[in-house]
Design brief:
Order of helices and strands: HHHHHH
Low-confidence stretches: 89-95
Distance between the termini: 95 Å
Shape: extended
Mean pLDDT: 79
Largest sheet: none
Helix content: over 70%
Number of helices: 6
Structural class: mainly alpha
Oligomer: single chain
Strand content: under 5%
Number of strands: 0
Radius of gyration: 28 Å
């Protein structure tokens, strides 16, 4: 019975892996225009061995894959969600801590990246808030007109009496 459970667990892990490769493949197709399964598997294995976005980005560049920072971050997040980094590489990086993310240095590039993200989010929020304000103004103007029309009719009826 233990062998059967182990077999089911292996099948589940293989299914998760194939699902991950499929997701990476579709992300590549969407962002880069190449949806090759072999490339997706290669990127998945690279990401599995990396602990940081910078490390993953460097490995991708070593292999000739120049991608935008946001996309590299997205890919690594997807990969680590299903396949956490291997423990062997954790020991090499000194990742004994539960909070190994805290050991990542914030350089000027990271600060600029965070500032750009904040600016983009603020711009999106301003656009969204502006659209909502426009909708409210249109609604209020229409309601005011309807209210004004009703008043005029009531007055006309009172004058006729």
């Amino acid at each position: 019975m233990a062998a059967e459970e182990e077999s089911k667990e292996q099948a589940l892990k293989k299914l998760e892996y194939l699902s991950l490769v499929s997701k990476v493949c579709s992300e590549l197709e969407t962002h880069v225009g190449v949806g090759d399964k072999v490339v997706a598997e290669f990127i998945t294995e690279l990401g599995r061995k990396c602990h940081s976005v910078d490390e993953f980005d460097a490995k991708l560049k070593e292999n000739g894959a120049e991608m935008p920072d946001y996309f590299v971050r997205t890919l690594l997040t997807i990969i680590h969600a299903i396949l956490p980094p291997s423990p062997e590489s954790e020991k090499k990086d000194g990742g004994d801590s539960k909070f190994s993310g805290l050991t990542i240095a914030d350089g000027r590039d990271r600060v600029k990246q965070l500032e750009r993200e904040i600016e983009m989010e603020a711009e999106e929020r301003r656009k969204r808030d502006g659209e909502m304000e426009d909708d409210r103004n249109r609604y209020d103007r229409g309601r005011d007109r309807d209210r004004d029309r009703g008043r005029g009719r009531d007055r006309d009826r009172e004058d006729r009496k």
